[in-house]
Amino acid sequence: MSFDEDEFEVSHADALSGASQRFAPEQMVTCSVCARRNPPTRMKCLYCGAEIPETEATKNLRRPVLKPLEEWEQGFNVVLLREQSADANENALRDAATLLRLERSALEGMLAANAALPLARVAAHDEAQMIERRLSELNFAVEIISDVDLEAESKVPQRVRQLRWTENDVTLTTNIGANSHVVRWKDVVLLVSGRLRHKRIEIEEGRGRRGMRNEVVDSREMFEDESVLDVYACAPGEGWRITAENFDFSCLGEEKNLLAAQNFRTLVAELRARASLARFDDEYAPLRPLLAHAWPLAERTEAGGLRRARPGRFHREAVTTVSNEAQFTRYSLLLHHLELRQGRRSDGK
Predict the structure, then answer these.
(1) To the nearest whole percent, how much of the chain has pLDDT over 70?
(2) Which of 125, 163, 192, 326 has its CA 20 to 30 A from that of 28?
(3) In three state form, how does the secondary structure of the chain look?
(4) What is the CATH number of domain 76-151?
(5) Is the pTM of this model over 0.85?
């Protein structure tokens, strides 16, 4: 079977919109490395992966790759800002949804949320710039914020196991080396509340009764769900995390309860009252479905080895874990990044 490059159907974006787009021979772009012709929608060569330079003729045709990143990769986040245009017209909504490979209803939900939300997370800065430019032309207020910027400015919050406070400040003792940090209440700028959820699925496979093919002989699912609160100060890199199941609630004194869930609610109320200047955000739960497009849940499957079922018969185990912790952390760090920037603007810096 021959392959006609001139009749190549462009991308998944066109498939999502229900339309196939074909290009004339003169519109195709020749790769400078392998000399193969590519549709003008491509940023990298379909055959050798080399970068394809943008031209005036192709800049409005190119489509982002939107390839999912590995856990270890540092990416660039294209973020829809709070001051985005909520009254985008029909054409703008259609074109933006096609560009981002989003369902129209999902994009409308993001606009209605009026929150800072990631529209895409990509590996290359030029890909992020292209998305930013195209969305800006459609009158969406967006900004590129890299993972490096988020982590360099905010850091992953340190786990806290104990608090002590006075009228003017709070002392946070971390899990690592029992280090303590003293922060004035007036310097606490942000409190982010949410829930961390972890699911573990264990599957055992063994030889079936008929034939040599393996089949599932047993499966187990385990869930963990706990409340979490991230506390941020006005200086970059100052962030701490309190989790309900790994915290000493002695700071509550006579208000301490037998139930960790009730203690956690009391602690959050106490911190909000004392850090009265801090912004409190508890929108993570309703925003989770909107975050998943750019920041999906972390899922990992690993071989669990062999388990002896009975003499001469072994079962092979596989373990899949699913967690929202990385997603919540990115959301929390993004809020702190924007809060610090807002503070700098207020100070005239």
Answers:
(1) 83
(2) 125
(3) CCCCHHHCCCCHHHHHHCCCCCCCHHHCEECCCCCCEECCCCCECCCCCCECCCCCCCCCCCCCCCCCCCCCCCCEEEEECCCCCCCCCHHHHHHHHHHHCCCHHHHHHHHHHCCCEEEEEECCHHHHHHHHHHHHHCCCCEEEEEHHHHHHHHCCCEEEEEEEECCCEEEEEECCCCCEEEEEHHHEEEEEEEEEEEEEEEEEEEECCCCCCEEEEEEEEEEEEEEEEEEEECCCCCEEEEEHHHCEHHHHHHHCCCCHHHHHHHHHHHHHHHCCCCEEECCHHHHHHHHCCCCCCEEEEEEEEEEEEECCEEEEEEEEEEECHHHHHHHHHHHHHHHHHHHHHHCCC
(4) 3.30.1390
(5) no
